[in-house]
Design brief:
- The protein is of the alpha/beta class.
- The protein has a single domain (about 15-280), classed as TIM Barrel.
- The protein has helices at about 5-10, 40-55, 75-85, 100, 105-110, 135-150, 160-170, 195-205, 220-230, 255-270, 275-280, 295-300; strands at about 20, 55-60, 60-65, 70, 90-95, 120, 125-130, 130-135, 155-160, 180-185, 210-215, 235, 245, 250.
- The protein has an 8-stranded parallel β-barrel with strand order 1-2-5-6-9-10-11-12, surrounded by 7 helices. The chain has a two-stranded antiparallel sheet with strand order 3-4. The chain has a two-stranded antiparallel sheet with strand order 7-8.
- Helix 2 (about 40-55) packs parallel to helix 10.
- The termini are far apart.
- The model is unreliable at about 290-300 (pLDDT under 50).
- The structure holds zinc ion.
Amino acid sequence: MPSLFETMATLGSTDPVIVSAALTGSWPTKAQNPAVPITEPEIAGAALACAAAGAAIVHVHVRDDDGVVTCDPARYARVRALIEAAGSDVIVNMSTGGGAGRTGDAERMAPIDLAPEIASFDCGSLNFGTGVFVNSPAFLDVLAARMTERGVRPEIECFEPGHVWNALRLIEAGALTPPFWFQFVLGVRGGAPPTLQQLVQLVALLPPGSRWSACGIGRAQLPLGVAAMTIGGHARTGLEDNLYYRKGELAESNAQLVARLVRIAGELGRPVATPVDARRLLGLAPRPASATAPTGQAGQAP
Ligand code: ZN
């Protein structure tokens, strides 16, 4: 395992920080925090506010009319269309998680047909809260092939070290191709604990040149995000993972959480990636100039 200093040196600590905002998730409700965006206009509005606060990527889930998680591509398409209609070039990452056990495999893959720039790729199974989140080898093979076909960059979500090992097997088989973009989701009940030691061990498993981000669940969100930025990684925040701004105080919005990470990145001396920067870092095709002006600038503001 590399030392922390080696980790900093080899993983590009001078890169701009890509801040991802996980806006809604599958489970949070307005009863828990009224700021959780549920409808498509609310989700798009949250995405725009996060982009203005410095997020380069918005990680999107959608809900049905009862607020229950769904994989309905029409709803995903509406969210993206609303974001684009507002002139934003923020990168839209569509979830294929399907609520960690609430939806079938075929349904979960449906958003891939929209060819989002990024989609989540949950790289293994685990207990998830009181349920089980199944991502079978067969499902991962098919999902990887569909993403490749559609030109979608997988965000390889790893909840524990075995998931990184799964990814290495898929890489060796040619099912996942570089550049690799990993998201470590730490602190799920059933996954790896949200500790710095765990994070460093996960990073040490990655193929050279990989880019990675971390998100901690609940109260681990802020310390893990700061740790990730400190050792050269990128960070995810948002109400999907954590409903609070600090102990006993609900977050006012997704954008409030983004703004805090952006402030801290500034203090750490790392610039914050605009969507243009993030596309370059992740090997995504640049967007046409007409679609890149408004939030490309806003992302640098704070
Ligand atoms: Zn998600």
